[in-house]
Amino acid sequence: MKNIFFLIIHLVFLPKLMAQELLTVEQAVKIALENNYEIKIAQNELSVDKVNNSIGNAGMLPQVDASLNKNNSIQNSKQTQTNGVVRELDNAKNNRLEYGVNLGWTVFDGLKMFARHDQLKELEKQGDVQLKLMVLNKVSDVMTTYYDLVQQQQLIKALDTSIVISKQRLKTAENRFSIGKAAKLEVLNAQVDLNTDASVLLKQKELFGITKIRLNELLARELSTDFLVAEEVTIDDKLQLTELKTLMEKQNLQLQMALINKRVAELDLKQTKANRYPTVRLNTGYTFLETESSLGFTSATSSKGLNYGVTATMPIFDGFAQNRNEKIAKLQVENSALAIEQQKQSVNVQLASAYQTYQTNLELVKLEESNEAIAKKNLEITLDKFKIGTIPTIEFRNAQENYINAIARNNSARFQAKISEIVLQQIAGNIAF
């Protein structure tokens, strides 16, 4: 009888299922990596860090500027010469035109430019780690949502089976009532239970549809895209704490981020200390100059030529701002070192806790698989007895509910075990993508 029920469900739902696309977890991850908006934003931010990482941005290259300056004036002028002669001119015009090319190059700034260049490299590494962390979190979200759909799909199938059983029970009750072997109350109870099962199934299908929309959102595709998911959750029950800890120490992205932050803080301190040293700058240029004057000994002049020189500046007193800035930078380095130790402790706690949860969930999977098998056998025996009328309706209903609950607990246990596995791989930085 049980096989007949599953056959009926298969025949009813097979045409609909064949019309849908089967989406594997690997395909879901691939689509998310290609489409997810937050990942794209993080990729663009990394591109910005790569563009910024240049010797020019660090201040190592010279700066070349072209300049043009033209000034005109109209004035009423009066000049008294040394011999007493007075010269006057109203609306006297004076014109000045200066243009040229100038080059400035800082050749020494206390090695600040080199520290800045190293810092730009670290900021690019930081952007790369941030991108990987974003990808890792999104992959984890996709996988978690996907396997949630798998467990919900299994529960829907169980509820479908329950409805088939309830319909069979209603039909049996009606037949028994028609021949006078059962009261009308038995038929009514069977109908109420069937309606209850249908209501629960509708609610579960609603949740399943909402979760599908959530997965499509993570994949950044049309929210109404329909698809199928895998039939079962495959669990890796071979994970070892020592191996995961070794991977975590090498690959955990949060630890890598803390180490990079410390290096960035150290380079900030180095740049701050460089302000104590003189800054030497070379300057050169080629300038053209033309002037015109309506009043004076010279009515027009012009010149052109090369100019060059060197500028050196050195801070002497700045109100103790340099000492203050260095103290702050040193404290930031100290804090970044403490943050590394804090992060190490945090990820170790996360790993140990997640591994304990993982082991517990694996034990629950074994227990719930056994419970489901027992509940299935109990339902089959109860169904046979119910058909010949040797047990009351309530006992059959209890067996039916126990079976559905056992399936739900088993699916939930497998889902939780898979989530524990994903969390462990995430902490270890070992999720493949």
Give structural notes.
With 433 residues, the protein is α+β, with helices and mostly antiparallel strands. The protein has one domain: Outer membrane efflux proteins (OEP). 65% of the residues lie in helices and 16% in strands. The chain is built from nine helices and four strands. The chain has helices at residues 2-18, 25-35, 37-52, 112-178, 184-218, 241-251, 253-274, 321-387, 393-427, and strands at 63-80, 86-108, 279-293, 300-313. It has a four-stranded antiparallel β-sheet with strand order 1-2-3-4, with no helix packed on it. Helix 3 (37-52) packs antiparallel against helix 4 (112-178), helix 4 (112-178) packs antiparallel against helix 5 and helix 4 runs antiparallel to helix 9. The longest helix is centred in the middle third of the chain and has 67 residues, at 112-178. The chain is elongated and about 145 Å long. The two termini are 45 Å apart. Mean pLDDT is 89; it is low at 4-9 and 11-18.
